[in-house]
Amino acid sequence: MKISIKLILLFLLSTCLQGCVLLASSAGGSVATVQTAQTIDMLKTAGDVGSAAVTKKTLTDHALSALSGKDCRVFNIFDKKKICKTPMPDVSTPEKIKAFQKSKDLEQTGKIGPKTRIALWRIQHELDD
Q1: Collapsed DSSP state (helix, strand, coil) of residue 72
Q2: What's the pLDDT tens digit per position in 50-66?
Q3: pLDDT value of residue 1
């Protein structure tokens, strides 16, 4: 399954979980089903609040980031930004610089020269994925 399909399914699942109390009660669910849905909803909300307070990301954001390998925030849509963006690569050592240069088909010098700087700038400004 492609990652984009996984992201869509995860988003739909998390959206459904948020409203599962209403769904369970309107579908004629038993009292136990409604109570279970309410408990899940409360736990998800508490987890989102705690996670957002510490990391500035909800549990859904973390799940999307883990699935896509990118830095995701659902609330970016309110700022008219992409939900997921490519994180800036770690270029703190010559070995990591070489790995980045290899991933971009650049000469692997281990130093940040003009071509490497341009490649980093393109990622920072979301011009490359």
Answers
A1: strand
A2: 988 999 899 999 999 99
A3: 46
Euclidean distance between CA atoms 33 and 85, whole angstroms: 38
Q: Does position 15 have pLDDT exceeding 60, yes or no?
A: no
Determine contact, residues 128/122, Cβ cutoff 8 Å. Answer: yes
Region of 126 please: left (phi>0), alpha (psi -120 to 50) or beta.
Answer: left
Q: Which residues lie across from 84 on neighbouring strands?
A: 72
**Tokens representing 72?**
């995701």
Contact 10, 72 (CB under 8 A): no
Note whether 24 and 33 are within 8 A (CB). yes
CA dihedral 68, 72, 75, 78 (to 10 degrees): -90
Q: In this structure, which amino acid lies at residue 43?
A: L
Cα-flanking dihedrals φ and ψ of residue 71, to 5°?
-95, 110
Confidence of residue 118 (pLDDT cuts 50, 70, 90): very high
Give the distance, in angstroms, between the CA of residue 50 and the centroid of all CA atoms in the same chain: 17
Strands 71-72 and 84-85, sheet pairing: antiparallel
Q: What is the pTM assigned to this prediction?
A: 0.57
